[in-house]
Predict the 3D structure of the following.
Amino acid sequence: MTTPILPGAKIGVLGSGQLGRMFAIAARQMGYRVHTLSPDNDTPAGQVADVEITAAYDDLDAVRRFASSVEVVTFEFENVPSATALAIAEIVPVRPQGEVLHVTQNRQREKSFLGRNGFPVTPFRPVSTLSDLQSALQKLGTPAILKSAGFGYDGKGQVRITSVEQAEDAYRGLGPAEMILEAAVDFECELSVVVARGMDGAAVDWGVIRNSHHRHILDVSTAPAEVPPSIERAAKKIAHAVVQELDVVGVLCVEFFLTRDGRLLINELAPRPHNSGHLTIDASVTSQFEQQVRAVCGLPLGSTELLRPAAMANLLGDLWEHGEPNWHAGCGFAGVKLHLYGKTEPRAGRKMGHLTALAASPAEAELLVTSARRALLSQYAPAPSTMLQSLPSSERQME
Ligand code: AMP
């Protein structure tokens, strides 16, 4: 058995966004030291880390110095060059290992891996040329979605094609690059399962989470998803099989479409904690970030028990359009927790923070969290008595 890396040790994180920040908070709570490396400074993760290194991912001298100063390296951002993961792995373990990054950072490789291993995926065709796209459209039909194979997230690098005539414009808009064409799935809802797997191969999940997106960006997640037990069992089984097949040590999220005829199709994998799992910070015994710390350090995994139904609402930069959100009003909702990522530039579509609500049911939690988010846009803080009226009965109790 590999010797565990114990509290007091230094953990390196590649990437410095909000996922790194929440990882660093969990790691420091457990007494670890955290070093981050990314091309930016004063970053969400760097602000709470012990050491923030500013260097390009392909500056291999800086990367090697970073690796030499820590005992294990993990990442919060999968678009790190393979050469970087390889250079680190010569010095300290990288968890999950570089091969997981290699597969999941490219949609063609990821979907081919899933298809090859018998996992249900959205119908797709690889596209490199305009004629590939035209024949893929013949096969898959319209509507379809053309996606760049690399560096895509939150709907970036995607174009919806509703007729064959749009092929050339869509291709020129994204290309020339590796792409995939996917059939547009007519889904009932979107679901995700976050799984953590330790050094000993034991894996745990947080159940099925229900996700709704707005303009291709996650908007609200609720847990439990309240899907039929057969769907829940199937989604969890697939997620565990994926994490096993990829031999992940760490956290991985499987995003699904549940089609109107009851089939689960994998949309995407994320080999790290995921936005839909942020609610585990407030709602579960062990959060996805603490679990990433435990997994990459070789500690036993913690309980994933959900303490109460929960909902998470993202706070995008759009909320700042007319000035600073009304934090006082938002914090007046007693069952709601505020998480901000320390980003100073609120751009439209940029994830600046999130709110989590706990309540008696997922529907109540969703109502509460979206009401609190709406209150952030109010101009004046309402009197506390008014706010309490607007809460579900179970939440009418000030902390
Ligand atoms: P992605 O970046 O691929 O996860 O896409 C972001 C969001 O766009 C998804 O969560 C869906 O809401 C939507 N989307 C992406 N691909 C498809 C598809 N093939 N069919 C229907 N909706 C999709």
In short: Confidence is low (pLDDT under 50) at residues 381-399. The chain has three domains: 10-94, 123-183, 187-398. The pocket of adenosine monophosphate is lined by residues 122, 145, 152-155, 182, 184-185, 190, 213, 216, 267-268 (CB under 6 Å).
